[in-house]
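Today's session is about reading a structure prediction critically. Students often jump straight to the picture, but the first step is always the sequence itself: look for stretches that repeat, for charged clusters, for runs of hydrophobic residues. Only then move on to the predicted structure, which in these notes is written as discrete structure tokens rather than atom positions. Here is the chain we will use throughout the hour.
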Amino acid sequence: MILEVDGNHHQESEQKTRDYVRDRVLLREGIPTVRFTYDECYNQSEKVVIEFLNMF
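Below is the predicted structure for this chain, in token form.
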């Protein structure tokens, strides 16, 4: 499982397309991507870590 931190540039159309393509490639290999915003990771890092670890 991959924890992806999405900053503001992830809202740009080209970046979204690259992210979606990469997510599908990884998922076909059995590797899911879990996305959190930069703000979540910066302001609520403990919550993000707990939520991510509880997915296992």
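Discussion point for the tutorial: The helical segments are 13-28, 38-43, 45-53.
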